[in-house]
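dude i think i finally got it to work??
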Amino acid sequence: MKKQKWFLAMLAVLIALLTVPAILSTTTVEAATIKLSKKKVTLVKGQKFKLKVKGTKKKVKWSSSKKSVATVSSKGVVKAKKKGKATITAKVGGKKLKCKVTVTVPKQEVNNNHNTSIRIEESKNTLAVGESIDIWIQCQGWSVSYDVSNVNIECSWGNWDSNNRCKLNVKGQFKGNTVLTVYDTIRPEIKDTITITVTQPVDSVYFSSTERTMVAGETYAVYSSVWPSDANNKKLNWTSSNTKVATVDQSGVVTAIGRGTATITAKAHNGRSASCTITVKDIDVVLPDLPKFIDEKKSDVAIRSTCLITDINLKKEYMSYSDQYILTLVFNGIKTYSDQGDNISSPCVIGYKLYDSDDVVVSSGTVYTTSVAVDDKFREEKIILDLSEGEYRLELLDVR
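look at this
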């Protein structure tokens, strides 16, 4: 029994001795393999670069020795701020890993003779993304360079002319302002500057719908958007191709006026545009020439009463569930004769026929006004149901 206990104790000691080196070895290997993806990197002002710690899954604490030159985020993203040098440190446990960062700005030399003076000629200094302009520089010597405060422009040297001028081509890369400095490479204090503004133009205009059917009198707000969303001038100019069919205000609200088709267009300052076709449904009624006398006849030669129709107003109501219209004819007039005498009140009687565009009668009948005496005015309505969209013609008739 004692031998068995002694054997088990010796076995435990042996296992412990074998395990400790393995643990130490693992720790040593992990520590030895932790490293940064880059030990040094050169960035242009405004550029970003992501550093990675390899060989560990532990939390990394990032820091910069000079935040005015380069900053670093909690995820290791380095951003170049201005020309200079900085050291980015990644701390993992007790270990510190370093990366040297050099920040530069674009610079280009023309040649190697110094100047006594440098002057940038007055020129256009605002351009759109993708647009290019030429800037002329007056200089006596030939040693000329440039620096930019922001990398939103791309510069390239052009030719010299006979008046000691050199040309610098500037192309807009993205929206923003930058200070362009042109200086002598031997005597940098000899310099001139100009501020360049790059604007973002509208690339395209979008409508939520490119066609719509409306009823006369209805309004509709066209939803529009421009791309990109950071364009400097997003203002749109709204127009209608046919204001007798539909009008549009400068907020994009369309008002249906009359039957037909119109194109609503929104155009940006640089000509980019979008269009929507508006079809307006309505019923048009051609009225007879007014004023017009209407006789109620007892026979071919005998007249019971006469009225004068002075005006006819129209009221139209669209029934969306049936795609039909209700038309109301409003007759305005005065009674001019009655065989019963001037002081006896009786209705005026008006005959009518309504024709469609194929000259087919779609409605006809007789309208009786309220009882009026001679020289009294009247106003009477006649409702006509179930009319389809289109053009109609109204005829007034004597009644017998």
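Confidence is low (pLDDT under 50) at residues 19-31.
im so relieved honestly
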